[in-house]
Write a structure and sequence with these properties.
alpha+beta; Endonuclease, Chain A; about 40% helix; globular
């Protein structure tokens, strides 16, 4: 028995160390050739290959004619989200990693209860281990008012190879859909600190792309509650996009959006393929916010190769991380990235939780995925790709402002002068690996 226990422990530890599970060998991706130049009319010619690759990997093509709003600031999203929730009269669908029963969560909880009592179709899916026992107990009271609440199972790491559907997999998606026509995706959970203390990134979308986001929502609904009816989708989504108007917010109209879901049971790696395609295709710049690392070796190499071609690669990292080992793993990358010509900025205000990239004044990616092994290999994630110059330039302007007002740039000399203990700690943590949120 002791020998068996030792073997199980070693195997489980190896899964944690690799951080990839049975999807680890999937390092090559066939990029389809786009021969039909009329394909994807809402996408610029030099990005049609990416659109085709993502459609091949996920089944979801770009959708034209959407209206989008960007939320770098939490209080702005909070006010908009409350308004959208209060106006919803047909359906509210939430698939989130964490839903805390604090002051913010309690307000959302009460709105959901009231809406359900009034006949609105309200459904909530949450990652079970990401929510405390106390929060789960409180949120379960919503069922008494007619809210359909389901928890995504506890993962069992050892099963990653033998039974992937019950392996080391977490529901890390943040999806909220209202009245079948407006959706939110991004990095914020439903919790006070995400709206009022931490820096994050979210996007609000109204229009044709919501049909795809609804289909992505259904993926996890079928995993936790397959007997439920399909979710409601509004009939005239192009008209919903044209009518969407939030006077106090900057909105972008007629935007092409492509959703990229990722599932640990897929035989392809859409998120990793997306990030690496963009890095290898960038001509001017690739800027990104990312709190948790390290990414796969192939993604690191793509970053270095981009910088070697003269692409301006910049990374905003947390100065304070809510998961300390993630901070150390990030620091373990600084020297090699700085030597490759990549500029690194540490966020100085509270915690940075944003997962966003911006490239070449045209493509913007916002979602739940970190640039790490958990997101690329093991979690259920979703990313929104925005093919639009005005929206991307707006995000790029915010990025530059952030580097000046909220960050300090890390230098190679500074990293070389770190203590031996700090260097060893970072190296050890990176190679040990571990989960982040």
């Amino acid at each position: 028995m002791k020998r068996t226990a030792l073997i199980i422990t070693i195997l489980a530890g190896s899964l944690l160390l690799t951080g990839c599970g049975y999807r680890a060998p999937l390092y090559q991706s066939y990029i389809p050739e786009v021969k039909d130049t009329s394909a994807y009319p809402g996408v610029r010619p030099d990005y049609k290959e990416l659109a085709a690759l993502m459609e091949k990997d996920t089944g979801f093509a770009p959708r034209e004619g959407n209206t989008v709003t960007l939320f770098p600031e939490g209080p702005q999203k909070w006010e908009m989200l409350k308004e959208d929730l209060e106006y919803a009269d047909k359906s509210i669908y939430i698939d989130h990693y964490r839903f805390c029963a604090d002051s913010t969560g309690s307000i959302v909880e009460n709105i959901l209860k009231e809406k359900a009592r009034n006949g609105v179709d309200v459904r909530v899916i949450l990652d079970k281990p990401a929510n405390t026992k106390e929060d789960r107990a409180e949120l379960a009271t919503m069922r008494l008012d007619g809210v359909e609440l389901d928890f995504f199972r506890f993962p069992v790491m050892l099963l990653d190879y033998v039974w992937p559907n019950n392996g080391t997999h977490r529901d890390h998606r943040k999806i909220l859909i209202l009245d079948g026509q407006t959706g939110y995706v991004g990095g914020r959970n439903i919790q006070d600190e995400y709206f009022f203390d931490w820096r994050d990134a979210d996007i609000r979308i109204t229009g044709p792309a919501i049909a795809d986001l609804s289909a992505i929502y259904m993926e996890n609904q079928e995993r936790v509650a397959p007997a439920l009816d399909p979710v409601y989708v509004a009939e005239d989504l192009p008209e919903a996009a044209r009518m969407d108007n939030v006077p106090e917010m900057k909105q972008f109209t007629d935007v092409t959006v492509q959703f990229v879901p990722d599932s640990p049971t897929d035989k392809v790696l859409p998120l990793r393929n997306c990030f690496e395609w963009v890095l290898y295709s960038a001509k001017k710049y690739f800027w990104f916010y990312n709190p948790y690392t390290p990414p796969p070796a192939s993604t690191l190499q793509a970053m270095k190769d981009a910088a070697a071609r003269g692409v301006d690669v910049r990374w905003i990292v947390p100065g304070i991380n809510d998961v300390k080992p993630a901070k150390w793993m990030g620091e373990s990358l600084y020297k090699e990235l700085l030597e490759a010509g990549i500029r690194i900025y540490e966020w100085q205000d509270h915690v940075l939780h944003a997962k966003q990239f911006i490239t070449d004044d045209y493509l913007l990616g916002i979602g739940s995925a970190n640039m790490d092994n958990l997101s690329f290999f093991l979690n259920y994630e979703v990313e929104a790709l925005v093919y639009n110059e005005p929206a991307t330039r707006n995000a790029a302007s915010t990025f530059l402002s952030d580097t000046e007002k909220h960050c300090r740039e890390i230098t190679l000399e500074e990293v070389k002068n770190w203590s031996v203990f700090r260097k060893f700690r970072n190296w050890f943590t990176r190679h040990l690996g571990g989960p982040v949120g």
